[in-house]
């Protein structure tokens, strides 16, 4: 620590001053550039985080729809197992693009067929409500039932998502 005088003779002034640090002229303005560079880097990081968040939301929606399709297919598999004879008689046969209204139970006297049509009517309504542009198909081959569910999925995957479930009677 140096003692700086106040204009009087040395030792006459009892005040001590701390040395002041002077910023050299060559460093003037660098703090503004550093702030701008930091802002650019933070902005790039924020854009990256927003992109990751958006992709995460897309994946979450895709997983949710797939879970819905699995639950819907399992529900129909259980319905067919409970009404096994109707499944073997192809009362549960369903082609793509058939709507719930085509399975009216009016005028149906066979109880197994009536239950199958009621199941299909309710189930197709559930498919239409739960999945965007949801569609389903049910086929039987001997003792095996195949349930296929299609829906409008992610655009980057061609738009159509599909789930297939097979059941042995």
Automatic annotation (TrEMBL):
Domain (Type IV pilin Tt1218-like) ranges: 52-105
Keywords: Membrane, Transmembrane, Transmembrane helix
Membrane-spanning residues: 32-52
Keyword Cell division part of the UniProt annotation: no
Organism domain of life: Bacteria
NCBIfam families: type_IV_pilV (TIGR02523)
Protein name: Type IV pilus assembly protein PilV
Organism encoding this protein: Amphritea atlantica
């Amino acid at each position: 620590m140096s003692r700086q005088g106040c204009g009087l003779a040395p030792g006459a002034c009892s005040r001590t001053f701390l040395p002041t640090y002077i910023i050299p002229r060559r460093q003037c303005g660098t703090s503004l550039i550093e702030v701008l560079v930091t802002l650019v880097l933070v902005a790039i990081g924020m854009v990256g985080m927003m992109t990751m968040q958006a992709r995460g939301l897309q994946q979450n929606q895709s997983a949710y729809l797939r879970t819905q399709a699995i639950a819907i297919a399992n529900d129909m598999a259980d319905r067919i197992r409970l009404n096994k004879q109707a499944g073997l008689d192809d009362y549960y046969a369903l082609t793509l693009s058939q709507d719930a209204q085509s399975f009216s139970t009016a005028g149906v006297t066979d109880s197994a067929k009536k239950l199958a049509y009621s199941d299909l009517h309710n189930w197709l309504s559930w498919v239409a409500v739960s999945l965007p542009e949801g569609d389903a198909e049910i086929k039987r081959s001997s003792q095996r039932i195949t349930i296929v569910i299609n829906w409008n999925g992610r655009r980057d995957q061609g738009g159509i998502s599909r789930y297939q479930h097979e059941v042995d009677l």
